[in-house]
Amino acid sequence: MKKNKKKTLVGALAAVLLFSGCNIGGRQVIITSGLGSQDVFRIGSASCKLTDAKVYLANYQNIYGKIYGIDLWKQGFLTDKLKKYVKDIALSEMTKIVCMDLLAQERDISLTEDELQATKTAAAEYYKSLNEEELEFTGASETGIAAMYEKYALANKVYESLTAGVDDEVSDDEARIMEAMQIFVKGKDEADAVAAKLNAGEDFAAVASNYNQKPEIEITFGRGELPKEAEEAAFELNNDEISGCIAVEGGYYFIKCINKFNEELTDANKSKIVAAREKAAFDDVYEAFVLGLSSGLNEKVWDDITLITDGSIMTDSFFSVLEDAMD
Predict the structure, then answer these.
(1) Which band of pLDDT confidence, cut at 50, 70 and 90, is reported for residue 308?
(2) By C-alpha distance, which of 36, 41, 11, 38 is closest to 23?
(3) Burial annotation 150-164 (CB, 10 A radius, 16+ → b, else e)
(4) CA nearest 220: which of 173, 259, 247, 270?
(5) Which of 27, 123, 125, 324 is buried deepest, with most CB atoms within 10 A?
(6) How far are the Cα atoms of 157, 180, 189, 228 from residue 251, in angstroms, in the given order?
(7) Tens-digit pLDDT profile for residues 110-139
């Protein structure tokens, strides 16, 4: 499988978000008062401004505050937890981008003139889309948005540079996704009883409904998702074929193959495998780089930011506008 070499901005960076809360390279940031009133955090020689943070927050509260067309803010669904989640996601993204831009400086990676022009075009479009409430909340300017877009595009270029040599060939066998039914029991006596019923020709699903001790009977899986012994036996089955009793640590499996090769899910899994390879290649360089960076969070400034969720802040196109301009 050949991957599309032109990654989307949001997809490429979202795939490598490693932060949980406020940490850099696995280390907690140092809370400090040595930052200005408009600085949210500093990493190395770079800082994130309050205006930039509010742009991210305004977009993320709408991106993550709506699921399947349902506005979670209007529903009042776990509002405090959702606000914390949005702020955590935004801080994670912003710290990642600052670190990657510092890495770009070290590796002498920069945007081309065409790429810089695309960020300016995107900034003009996005700034024009903001209503009065959004402009007041974020304090954004067109030049400020352009600078944010430059940083985001540069971070994406760093990611592309670090993952350019990753092998993007994935075989059908490596990525194969299989559909099956399973029976899992813990005891030998139960396994013997299941084997006897299946050997007598009883319906697999009926036996499974009486004996299976796993949460699901119907399963879809790829390599590495079942115990090794069960996986090896399952992947040797043809459609409608039933395995014998498979002993694994902690119990026994019986598997009936429904579809030994789901082509659609297999193709999707190939993309996941390539993404995992890219992430590993990226992490090797990125983690070593960030370990040498000092960092500080302006806790007061960050904690004082209050999301406005009354419906007046509707913007959610910050990332998509840039992505379209860079195509």
Answers:
(1) very high
(2) 41
(3) bbbbbbbbbbbebbe
(4) 259
(5) 123
(6) 48, 18, 11, 13
(7) 999 999 999 999 999 999 999 999 999 999
Instruction: Please state whether the predicted TM-score (pTM) of the whole model is above 0.85.
Output: no
Judged by DSSP in three states, 42 sits in strand
What confidence tier does 17 reach under pLDDT thresholds 50, 70, 90?
very low
Beta bridge partner(s), residue 253? 184, 246
Helix (H, G, I), strand (E, B) or coil at 31: strand
Q: Taking the CB of residue 251, how many other CB atoms lie within 10 A of it? A: 18
Annotate 115-172 with DSSP letters as a single string: HHHHHHHHHHHHHHH--HHHHHHH---HHHHHHHHHHHHHHHHHHHHHHTT------H
Question: What is the signed CA dihedral for 27, 28, 29, 31, rounded to 10 degrees?
Answer: -150
* C-alpha–C-alpha distance, residues 18 and 8, integer Å: 18
Q: Which amino acid is at 34?
A: G
Model confidence at 238: pLDDT above 80: yes
